[in-house]
Amino acid sequence: MTDRMKGIPRRPWMDESGMTSRLYGILGHPLAHSLSPAMQNAAFAAAGIDALYVPIAVSPDRIRAALRGLKFSGFSGFNVTVPYKQTVLPFLDRVSPSARAAGAVNTIVADPKTGRWTGHNTDVYGFLELLVRARISFAGKRILLLGAGGAARAVLSAIASRSGSIMIRNRTPLRAVRLRALQPSPIRQKIHIIRNDANLAASGPFDLIINSTSVGLKSRDRLDLPSHVFDGAGAAVDLIYNPAVTPFIRAARRAGYHAVNGVDMLLHQGARAFELWTRRPAPVAAMRRALMENLKRA
Ligand code: ATR
Fold it and tell me: Of 85, 113, 190, 218, which is the active-site residue?
């Protein structure tokens, strides 16, 4: 063992690489606009940890081969993002209760001795932290959830058990039906699928409206939501954080709703992932600073 290797946990299945930094990353496609590398590298620097966090962009036709290879690549852990949060499931050695409940994984931790992978879902924690920090309550409330994709799964997993009732509206209603069917029976009973605008009008007003769709990410995106949706009084959350003000947030604020974007969810899912990897408290202030600086530049 060279001097440079001293103190670095040996990974028994690897040859000595001479690399002294721990390696982390984010697996997804596309990744060009991900802010996680900036946020996590700032966290490692602030905590004085010798580690590097890199984008791992893999196209869908190569993802299975890439995952098989990643198992032997020396990564200490990585995040998983769109569209692979379910793809990674069969490659895991263990699934945490949070990931099992959400049916999706966004953080993988590799055991330093055996290389075995455990999958976690820190999006659920991130979403709950966002609600706490924005002082948005959901217990017993009437909630409208827009979208039925991967992000909607994490939202449901975070709030469904304590909310009053949840209406799900999705461009493809069948996907909402499937999402409902995946839930345990007591939760299924409080979920209703919105199939058309008349249905939507009859279901309001809502205390909390959550946008988990990707509508609003692109500048040309228009809000496809009747204005009566905001006829009540309450809160609105858009999981999108870039742009900071989406058409959804604008409409909610205009109607007097307390509306926040998804930047706190991004921050806190990342902080929790950092803690799972390092077993150290996350330097949240440094992570937020890195996020804000990069959002300004984006
Ligand atoms: P994520 O993991 O970010 O949730 P996803 O699983 O691809 O990504 O889900 C994207 C969500 O945005 C879905 O609810 C999708 O609706 P469909 O199920 O009908 O595809 C929604 N979405 C994407 N583009 C949309 C658009 N132009 N209009 C309405 N909904 C849209």
Answer: 85
